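Project channel, design review

CF: Before we commit to the Halioglobus maricola constructs, I'd like one complete example in the thread so the newer folks can see what an input/output pair looks like. Taking DUF547 domain-containing protein.
RD: sounds good, go ahead.
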Amino acid sequence: MIRIIPLLLGLLLASSLASAELDSAAWNKLLGSAVVAGHVDYAQWRDNPDFDAVVEQVARADTGAMSRQQRLAFYINAYNILAARGILDGRSPDGILGRYLYFKRDTYAVAGERISLHQLEHEWIRPLKEPRIHFAIVCASQSCPILQSEAYTADRLEEQLESAARGFINDRSRNRFDLRSGRAELSRIFQWFEEDFEESSGSVQAYLAPMVSNAEASSQLSRNGFEISYLEYDWSLNGSL
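CF: and here is what came back for DUF547 domain-containing protein:
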């Protein structure tokens, strides 16, 4: 009996550790199967026990002992998983009422608490002061950043966030810089979260300058030289059901 006790304690500890954070390999597998160039085949995740398992892991996670990088990676993954869960539950951000239900009314279990997607983004993720999260969390819409085909992980988070940010910023369907006219058409993400980019770099244009691949556009942005307008946001689904 004495020898059995340490074994039982070990099993309990292993179980506790297993529920402490998201199984990124499992989420990776789901993403790799259903996401191609940002297009999400949501049907693959409907009635899928593997998807249900990662939703449950989000609910049971213990963020108390996580580092900032671990929490940031976990929250990004959690947001993307639960945004997909909302779509599978019949919600949609397409339309004013749809956005209210999808972002604010419906709640999900995250790390032992029930919160909405709005709360997860504004009360848990944004306070971590990382503006690149706006290119990583995906609200299942065409004008959102694309859902990446891999899970975010703490050890690769810097690389992943930088890649997501540069990919979004240099995508002409989302941001356009006309050097002749001096006008830039930007994603409304830069309007809605202007304060996050200003806090980071002083202005939206200063934030964009080192990220834009076109050297002339980058130089003009560094001088706040563009007249800014914002593109209409397409809330239609970023995939198929």
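RD: helpful, thanks. DSSP finds eleven helices and eight strands in the chain.
CF: Strands lie at 35-36, 39-41, 108-110, 113-115, 176-178, 183-186, 227-230, 239-240.
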